[in-house]
Structures are given as C-alpha cells and as structure tokens.
Design goal:
heterodimer, A: 2 helices, 9% helix, globular, B: 186 residues, alpha+beta, 12-stranded mixed sheet, 12 strands
Chain lengths: 175, 186
Amino acid sequence: CAQLPKTPVADSPGRPAQALTQWHMKGKVGITTLTERVNASINWQQQESDFSISLSGPFGQGRADLIGDASGIVLATGGQTYRGTSAKDLMQQQLGWSVPVQHFTYWAKGIPSPLAPVTGLSYDEQGSLSALEQDGWQVSLSRYTTVDGWQLPGRMSAKTDQIALLVVAKEWLLD
Amino acid sequence: NSESLVELLEPLVNGAGDFEQITYDSKGQPVQRSSGHFAVMKPGKFYWQTLQPYEQVLVSDAQTIWLYDPDLEQVTVKTFAGEQNQLPIRILSGDFDLIGKEFQLSEAKTEQGLVYHLAPNSASSNVASIDLTFVGQNLASMTVVDRTETKTQFVFSNRKALSQDDKNKFAFEIPEGADVFHDQPL
C-alpha cells in the first residue's frame, strides 16, 4: 500500500495546502523541450478552478497568457489570441509543447493532483511532500516556506522524457 | 527622413543606462513592470540586466546570445544569427537599415517630445507599431504595440557613455553549476 505520510513533526511549518483554493504566485519558469527552452517570469492567479497564467520574457518578449474559466480556455501569444476548451490542445497547437495545467495547479502548492493516481510519494524531514509520480510526470518539490500558515514550495520541478518544467516561486500573495 | 531617425538612435546603440519596462494589456491596465540596467555597443553587442522585480540577464557578443536566470540557475545559449529577426534585438544591435525597408515612418511633435511612429509594411509582423520618443537628442522611450494591443513601454534614463566595465560585460561567463541549454537554430 502507498507509504503512509510521516506525521509532520510538532514544529512543522504550516499545513499542506489542499484547502487553499485562492492564491497568486509570482516567480520564474523554465520550460525545456528537446529542441527549445523558454525562460520567463510567471504570474499565476488561481481562484477555485479558474486560472490566469502570464509568462513574459525580457523586452516583454515571449509574452503568453493562458486564461481558463467556465467559458473555456484562452491563449494569447505572439500577438494573437486563440480560444478552445483544452489548455493542452491549445498549447500543443500554438506553442508546440504543453504542460498539464490541471495537475500543475496542485503540484505548485506542494500536493498531489486528485485527478490521477499517484505513486512514489516521499517526504522531507518536516513532513512536506518532496517527490511524486503522476500521469507520466516525475515531480520534485523543495524550499518550502510557510505563508499565512500554509506550507508552500519555493521550487517545483516536473519532468517527462519530452519536457522539463522548473518553477521557482518568489512570492505568494494569499488574499 | 529615416536618416534623421538613424542619427537619433545612434547614441542608444553606443551607451549604457537604466531602463524601466511596463507592459499594459489591451484595456490599458499595467500588468507587468520591471527595471534594470543596459549597455549596448554597435554592432550586435548588448547587456540587458533586469533587476526588479526579479533578476534576469540577456547578453550578446554579436555571435552568441546568453539568457541567464539566477533564480532558476539556468542559462540558455542561442546564436546571434538565429535571433537577429527578433525586433528588439535588431533595434538594440543598431540594425537600422530595417527601418527604411520594413516600416512606414511618420513624425509628430508632442508635449512628451519628438515622436517617430513606425508602422510595419507587412501585416504579418506581430508588431502593430513602434513609437520612439526623443527629448532633445535623447531617446526617452520606446513603445511597442502588438496585434492583441498589448503595449510594452521602455523608458530610458541615466544615459552615459560605455565604461570599460560595461564593455567587459559583453562576454558572458557561465556560472558554476548552471543548467545550460543550447537552443538549436532552426
């Protein structure tokens, strides 16, 4: 059976962020495919299941905005706007790569995604999730900080053999 | 009159200074703000260091372009030739013959200063317009608007001639332990 998570030690910083459904994270993202790498600042706002993710590189170049809500998904990039119902398809068509935003929403908070089976769970000394495998992605989480009582990772890496995603969270703004 | 513009841009491409960069969405709301330091030496050498809100450095020695992100500890290495068609890089590296060929140029006096408005000849470029505002001989700001009406404004200040220290920055040293990626030119 899956390894039982070690009970967090008494002075563990904050609690896992399952119940955190509104957050705003600012930081950096590196997306490396087999043929290209994108380095950008990331500005991610999440409200329940609605999200607004903005990437921007130096000179305001490489701007991409991915917005998702009940009405669908909008991807704005390269001076054009595209609409659809699947973030994965839109990214694949317009950017040539995609990351599973639906899982990413949970990984970025340092918890497994409830949308797929999870294996390979392991935890650091403070009892924070440090690694997991889901949907073909190897995820590793580190540099946890406590923000308003929530335990949030400062560094999140997620990889398949096709693409490597690295996010460094510089600021969490929790309203 | 693109000659007068080329003359006016000359100091931009041989000097150093500070920049502030503000990106506005199509409704005119500021969505991204950053600032830092730049040094440029024609042809093709430049150093563009974003300091706020987070650090990122873009360096070109006219053969190679390095993008270094200290937070991610990643370096992306590209060829200058492969990136040359990137508009800001063409302007920064003093590649001004494109202005006559690829842009319609119009000039207007405004309270902010003398504004050169550049509109691309080809509709396929994802740039809708570039405005260059000069105060006296100094390029005070450059505003790039793209097809989704996202506007990025660069405001330049503390302009000065290149120091030897500035010139040394055009050759980038890859930091120990950085994750380096070589972008294959298409």
